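From the methods appendix. Each design record in this collection lists the tokenized structure first, followed by the designed amino acid sequence. Records were kept in a plain field format so they could be parsed without special tools. The example shown here is representative of the layout used throughout.

RECORD:
FOLD TOKENS (219 positions):
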């Protein structure tokens, strides 16, 4: 299989033959790229395989995974295709690299967070956990997608209190929806606009390494 997406992969420093590793797949925001996401997870590069997936649609100097009719209103056909292609890519990478299929994590920002949460609902317990930063779940995903159980999926959701793209109300609504489906939800607000603070980054990094059974990152 030739994957539809370009991607960067960072392997742990000392890869042991025959050993499998936890993985973090990163999904960037609209108009960004996989390189911008690596800075958010670089502190975990010794313990995780990190795969940054680049959107396949050019947008300005960056990329996107799907286009919009308007803000918060994805073009449905493009969105559906992106979800299917990303799920296929996760399977492709799991077969190609020494990934522990029981410790697959997704981490996304904005458009990437929207896809991250959608993939969790579609893939269910095929994922160990997700980190969704400043995103939402489209209504058509909630009502029309074949949603699987996420009862045992670990979920970290965060939102900026002053988010000017997706107002903080959306963060609360997203958390309420997910809280009905898993007891393993961590929801945090940060004093920020549509971005990721240093505190936010430290919190989800520590959450990830703890959930994967690794050592907590020092502050």
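DESIGN:
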């Amino acid at each position: 299989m030739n994957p539809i997406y370009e991607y960067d992969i960072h392997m742990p420093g000392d890869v042991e033959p025959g050993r499998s590793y936890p993985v973090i797949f990163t999904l960037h925001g609209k108009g960004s790229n996989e390189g911008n996401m690596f800075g958010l997870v670089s502190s975990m590069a010794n313990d995780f395989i990190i795969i940054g997936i680049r959107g396949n649609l050019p947008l300005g100097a960056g990329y996107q995974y799907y286009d919009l009719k308007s803000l918060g209103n994805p073009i449905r056909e493009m969105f559906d295709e992106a979800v299917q292609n990303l799920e296929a890519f996760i399977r492709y990478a799991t077969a190609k690299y020494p990934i522990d299929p029981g410790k697959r994590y997704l981490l996304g920002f904005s458009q990437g967070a929207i896809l991250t949460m959608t993939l969790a609902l579609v893939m269910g317990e095929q994922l160990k956990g997700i980190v969704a930063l400043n995103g939402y779940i489209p209504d058509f995903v909630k009502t029309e997608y074949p949603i699987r159980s996420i009862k045992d999926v670990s979920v970290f959701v965060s939102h900026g209190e002053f988010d000017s793209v997706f107002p903080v109300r959306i963060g609360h609504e997203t958390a309420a929806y997910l809280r009905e489906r898993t007891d393993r939800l961590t929801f945090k607000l940060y004093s920020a606009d549509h971005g990721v603070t240093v505190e936010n980054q430290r919190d989800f990094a520590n959450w990830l390494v703890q959930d994967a059974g690794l050592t907590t990152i020092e502050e």
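APPENDIX NOTE: The mean pLDDT is 95.
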